[in-house]
Amino acid sequence: MHIIDTHCDALLKLQIAKRNELFSGKPLRFLDGAELDTNFLRLQQGGVKVQFFAVFVHPELPDNEKWQHCLEQVDLFYSEVLEQPRMKHIRTWQDIDTLEPGEIGAVLALEGADAFGNDLVKLRQLYRLGVLSLGLTWNFANLCADGVGEPRGGGLTMLGKRVVELNNEYHVFTDVSHLSRAAFWEVMQLADYPIASHSNARELCDHPRNLEDEQIEAMFLRNGLIDVVFCPEFINPASQQATIEDLLRHIDHLCTLGGERHVGLGSDFDGISAHVTGLEDASAYPKLIEALQKRYSETQVEGFAFRNFLSHRPGMGTNQSKT
């Protein structure tokens, strides 16, 4: 069964390894690097058909270094990920439909607007480079919005609202996974294409990175997607351990709120320090599918795995060529 996974941090791992290569002499290859949960071979083994690759620039980096860090990760997306002959760059959402058997689609995403600051020229350049999903923040505040870890809990700035408008124009997802509660509700008013690329249900695990039931219902009303994350800390309260069964409880809960056609998968592989038992890397996806098949119909499981995403892609049937 095909899998569409809307979040991983392989580019950050590749960048760190590249910067350390001169000192360690140990290159990290996307093809088969053992340190990567989402290396090419593991994506193949897991049946992943489309993988989102996040660009993450840490907010604590000096401002004058952030754009360079962003470009380094984008460069690795092109030079490492797309270097594999069976990896295909998804530049428009229709490109997914042209994937041949054995090909894996690669989507470029941005996790936090820190990379471009208040420079919309840089943002438009990222669109041109292929960014199709954009989260305004990580956990902290930036020039666009407050994240879940910012104590003041502010909403969107004028710049943040403009970025959401640009996402709409370019048929790009606006990712709410790290937003403060106030910023989330403002995005609900503005975004044509909302997604929670890697979040779970706060009713089951009271972590600020998870979504409250009211938020979940709002996402579904806005035709948004919520993709469950495999981080044990977001699955079980105050725990670094979780089973596949624990993860499925979050899918169950989302479905009780009307999410059967709005739920997907956003592993956060390569961005998490602990793993769900049995889901240690992308090659283990068949175990999750098998567990889902024991409690849901084949149609429902296909929905969670890939079909829900395909039916919620931005701007389908419209001309997306703005660059």
UniProtKB/TrEMBL annotation:
Recorded superkingdom: Bacteria
Organism: Planococcus maritimus
Pfam family for this entry, one: Peptidase_M19
GO molecular function, one term: metallodipeptidase activity
A single BP term in Gene Ontology: proteolysis
PROSITE patterns: RENAL_DIPEPTIDASE_2 (PS51365)
Organismal lineage: Bacteria, Bacillati, Bacillota, Bacilli, Bacillales
Protein name listed in UniProt: Membrane dipeptidase
